[in-house]
User: Which sequence fits this backbone?
């Protein structure tokens, strides 16, 4: 039940009783009006009876007046007789009118008849009495006359009595019916009131039940929700606690609120000790090389309001002093309003994997040297052989000009040897910071080292570069990448195959700053769909026992370090249908000064 | 006649300077020397000239030393071949096919000893043939 339903129920519960009570009041008012009508009728009856009595009194007064005058002969005795004449008439008329207007009575015709009879008889008596008054007293005193007058008056009285009786009967009937009405009204009102009461009661109960049911349901729902929330909370806590990476959660001020077991293990702080402490105290991180404290990730997240990763070579110093190379990220915890409520830190110990990685990189470096060894031996032995021969000749030669010629040739061959050894050494000797590297020279140097190999395989190399193309970087690493790529192209092209190398400076594009792109095509079979996805994974090789499977993986790492990339596609060139490797290097290197571990003297 | 005339040696190597110097060394020792910078021109000389011994480089553009040796053996199997290489791991079948091998790092004395032996053996063989 929502609030609208609840309000509706409240309105219903208020409105229905009010309506019912209003109906009851109207009904009661109607009943009262009914009974007052009945009482009015009784009043009218009483008034009628009183008027009839008054009429009778007036007629009696008249008779008495006449009799007094007859007995005393005093005309003043006639005064009441004369005074009553007009009111009697008036009363007769009035009564007639009253009876006529009273249409609801069953006795009306009888009463009208009786009134008419009384009036007739009174007129008769009045006529007789007036006659008597105008005659002489002797006649008046005649007993027969008196008798007649008395008879007439008796008739009048009898008629009026009849009228009175009938009216009394009418009043009685009215009174009885009024009483019955009152009783009926009383019962009806009681019944109506009881019914209204019952209805209001039942309705209210039903509404209340509905509300209470809804309330119960709401309570149950709230309880269920609370249970669910608590279950979910437990679930999240268990998940966080059992996650394989270390997790630390902080509040908005950067104080530790939660740590899982791995985090406890790596920092050396149990949660109960760390709780409420500042993160910087628990999570002490420094740069592996500089040993300088690294910025607290909570601060960084607060400042940048977004997910941040740690710089490479971050070392966590645990409470016990043990050091772990870690890889981590920190993210803001936001409330529903988007406000930052805290920071969550996820990190892992990568000491082992860093060591393995370093070993793999070293392995690959050696493998590249191994692949070059035969070629290098050849390159060095050729000039050395020439020099040995020249020394042999010099020993035996006495002619000055010849000796000069031999010495010059020996110098030439020595220079060549030194150039080769320098190139070889530069594979290993690395400056500490990026230096300008001419990609063209670099390509030439690598091709020089590989010359024999190319010759042996009978591979035709098309060199599409003449202009210097300078980028910033680590020459030995770049040479390693280039050697790798060209060796791959040679392997792919096979005996009598072709390789094309192009170096072209590129202008800045939307996602790429200005730099140099080196493209290496080969006439080999290209790369299969299946192999393409795995090209940059360590230990993936298409060369069986002859490959370490590390070349492209390391090359990719080196290119990324320089802010460049390596992409391998199948060529769409009609001429060279093999693989095409694109190497992009930005003119300005993003690589940081290199680490001592990467410098092999 | 054959004994007194200095032997004619064919030298094949793609290293022009090295070849020139080697020629000078051999000539200093009294040999006559023909040179070729690749396998096919070497084979042409081999066909046209009365070559008595061959000093052959292994790594060369186009035909390598092994292929050149095979072609020479097909034409004149009696001419001895000395395989001269800077490379240590030469294919076994190539080593079996030639008469001598010399590493470039071994120096001119070693080369000259092997050349002398090669020509002596040939002389003996041809001499035997001549006398039989």
Assistant:
């Amino acid at each position: 039940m929502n609030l609208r339903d609840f309000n509706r129920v409240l309105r219903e519960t208020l409105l229905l009783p009010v309506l019912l009570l209003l109906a009851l009041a109207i009904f009661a008012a109607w009943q009262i009006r009914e009974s007052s009508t009945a009482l009015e009728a009784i009043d009218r009856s009483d008034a009628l009876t009183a008027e009839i009595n008054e009429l009778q009194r007036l007629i009696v007064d008249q008779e008495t007046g006449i009799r007094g005058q007859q007995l005393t002969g005093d005309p003043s005795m006639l005064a009441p007789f004369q005074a009553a004449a007009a009111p009697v008439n008036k009363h007769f008329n009035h009564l007639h009118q009253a009876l006529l207007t009273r249409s609801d009575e069953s006795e009306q015709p009888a009463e009208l008849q009786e009134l008419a009879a009384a009036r007739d008889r009174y007129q008769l008596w009045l006529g007789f009495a007036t006659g008597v008054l105008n005659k002489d007293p002797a006649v008046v005193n005649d007993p027969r006359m008196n008798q007649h007058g008395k008879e007439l008056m008796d008739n009048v009285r009898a008629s009026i009595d009849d009228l009175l009786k009938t009216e009394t009967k009418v009043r009685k009937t009215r009174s009885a019916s009024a009483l019955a009405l009152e009783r009926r009204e009383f019962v009806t009102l009681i019944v109506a009131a009881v019914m209204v009461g019952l209805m209001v009661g039942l309705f209210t109960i039903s509404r209340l039940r509905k509300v209470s049911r809804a309330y119960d349901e709401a309570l149950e729902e709230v309880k269920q929700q609370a249970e669910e929330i608590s279950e979910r909370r437990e679930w999240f806590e268990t998940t966080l606690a059992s996650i394989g990476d270390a997790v630390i959660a902080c509040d908005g001020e950067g104080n530790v609120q939660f740590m899982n077991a791995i985090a406890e293990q790596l920092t050396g702080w149990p949660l109960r000790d760390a709780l409420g402490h500042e993160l910087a105290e628990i999570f002490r991180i420094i740069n592996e090389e500089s040993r300088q404290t690294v910025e607290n990730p909570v601060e960084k997240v607060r400042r940048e309001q977004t997910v941040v990763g740690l710089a490479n070579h971050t070392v966590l110093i645990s409470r016990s002093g043990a050091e772990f190379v870690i890889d981590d990220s920190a993210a803001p915890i936001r409330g529903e309003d988007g406000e930052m409520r805290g920071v969550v830190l996820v990190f892992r110990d990568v000491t082992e994997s860093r060591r393995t990685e370093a070993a793999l990189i070293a392995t690959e470096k050696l493998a590249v040297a191994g692949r070059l060894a035969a070629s290098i031996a050849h390159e060095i032995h050729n000039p050395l052989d020439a020099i040995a021969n020249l020394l042999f000749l010099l020993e035996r030669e006495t002619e000055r000009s010849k000796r000069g010629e031999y010495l010059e040739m020996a110098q030439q061959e020595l220079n060549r040897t030194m150039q080769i050894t320098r190139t070889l050494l530069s594979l290993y000797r690395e400056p500490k910071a990026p230096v300008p590297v001419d990609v063209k020279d670099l390509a030439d140097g690598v091709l020089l080292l590989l010359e024999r190999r190319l010759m042996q395989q009978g591979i035709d190399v098309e060199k599409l570069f003449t202009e210097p193309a300078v980028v910033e970087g680590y020459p030995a690493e770049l040479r390693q990448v280039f050697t790798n790529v060209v060796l791959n192209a040679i392997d792919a092209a096979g005996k009598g195959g072709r390789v094309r190398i192009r170096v072209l400076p590129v202008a800045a594009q939307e996602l790429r700053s200005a730099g140099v792109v080196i493209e290496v095509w080969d006439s080999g079979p290209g790369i299969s769909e299946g192999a393409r996805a795995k090209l940059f994974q360590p230990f993936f090789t298409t060369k069986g026992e002859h490959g370490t499977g590390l070349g492209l993986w390391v090359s990719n790492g080196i290119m990324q370090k320089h802010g460049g990339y390596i992409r391998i596609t199948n060529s769409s060139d009609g001429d060279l249908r093999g693989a095409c490797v694109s190497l992009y290097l930005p003119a300005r290197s993003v690589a940081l000064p290199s680490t001592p571990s990467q410098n092999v003297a | 006649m054959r004994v007194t005339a200095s032997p004619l040696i064919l030298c094949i190597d793609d290293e022009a300077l090295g070849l020139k110097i080697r020629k000078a060394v051999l000539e200093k020792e009294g040999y006559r020397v023909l040179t070729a910078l690749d396998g096919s021109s070497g084979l042409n000389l081999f066909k046209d000239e009365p070559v008595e011994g061959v000093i052959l480089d292994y790594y060369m553009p186009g035909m390598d030393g092994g292929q050149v040796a095979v072609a020479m053996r097909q034409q004149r199997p009696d001419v001895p071949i000395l395989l001269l290489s800077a490379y240590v791991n030469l294919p076994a079948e190539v080593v079996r096919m030639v008469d001598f091998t010399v590493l470039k790092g071994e120096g001119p004395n070693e080369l000259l000893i092997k050349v002398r032996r090669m020509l002596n053996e040939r002389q003996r063989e041809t001499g035997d043939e001549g006398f039989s």
Summary: The beta strands of chain B are 8-12, 32-36, 53-57, 81-85, 100-103. Residues 8-131 of chain B form a domain with the Rossmann fold fold (CATH 3.40.50.2300). Residues 108-131 of chain B form the longest helix (24 residues). Chain B has one domain: 8-131.
